[in-house]
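Folding Query — how this chain folds
Tokens — whole-number codes for backbone shape
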Amino acid sequence: MSVLRRIVQSPTVSNAAKAFIPYPLGREPSSVPKIFPIYETYIDRRPISLRYRVTAMIEMCNLDEAATISHLAVVDRFRNDRDTVFICNSVIGAMCKAKRYEEALSLFNYFFNESQVLPNTLSCNLIMKAHCDQGRVDVALELYRHMVLDGRVSPGIETYKILTEALVAAKRFDEACALERSMKRRSFMVYDILIRGFLDAGRFVEASQIFEDLKEPNSRLPWREYHKAIAVFSASFMRYWLKQGKDEEAMEIYKGLDKPMLQVNPIVGNRILQVLVEHGKKTVALDLFEEMICNSETVDIIFKGFSDTIVPFDFEWLGVGCYGTMIKRLCEQGRVSEAEELFADMFSDVERDEHLMAAGPDVSTFRAMINGYVKVGRVDDAMNMLDKMKISTLRKLAIHRAS
């Protein structure tokens, strides 16, 4: 058993007895932009939680103000609040999404090193992903090793997915496989990253060996995920054969799949649907789509793959996320009138009932409509939609009550 695996499975040091060791940043802390604390008087006295204030600023894409307000999460009044880590993660995540990695790292250092708030797995995952996105895999691995040795925060499945994907992208397959072997809890998604990585690198034998090993009766896969995992792995091999121009081999795999699972399990169904659409198997893809339970990813795949075709949707079974995705894609395709009708139909009850505000349009949906109007030259309608967005956001803020 490797040293790393022994550490993961049998930590011997009590969490409570450990002295605080700062989380590694990949550089000297003095080189990270300094954050200065703010006073509670920075915000007004309305009974609105700090969590909601930060979330509202993020929704309105005012990340600078969100970051400033979030500094209060470490002061005594808010520090013991159950929302503290949520606030920290929200603003760090928003900075990462906007690719403002330097500021994300600075916030991470301020919250979890300087202020010694205890992070959770998501906190570390966000920074590891930021490092990997910038090609700094070794720095991400340094933070992972710190988590393992420190023991207060445990790596999760998403941690291993992030690191495995980065190692595979860097063609560091031996390290990726070693990392997989150190996992306490197995995840078929990590195995699929390895399989796809080997296939993309032309190493079919290694990919097939992993697949065959996982199909054995004593498979390392959790039994509840076994059939779902085999279907996801099959999608990766379908993609491989289609890329090689060997359609017959790919479709033979498809014929052998459990069709009811594809229909009711979006993770599996969407993976197969994506492969079919990407490689021109649109008739088969539409047949599958008509039988599937849709989520927002399903809608996204269909709109991107059938941009020149009107695809019928069963609106009775679509959730709010699906509607939002459809509106965005319709606007991108210049089909603003259709998006407009869908927007009006989807949110027709919201203005009459404040309890439905949470199900109403989010800022990204409003922005999609605004951009769509501008794209087709309807500037006045874009300005009206901007006013509606402001009113909707203010109404959400007004009806909010502090927890």
About this structure: Residues 1-17 have pLDDT under 50 and may be disordered. The two ends are 48 Å apart (CA to CA).
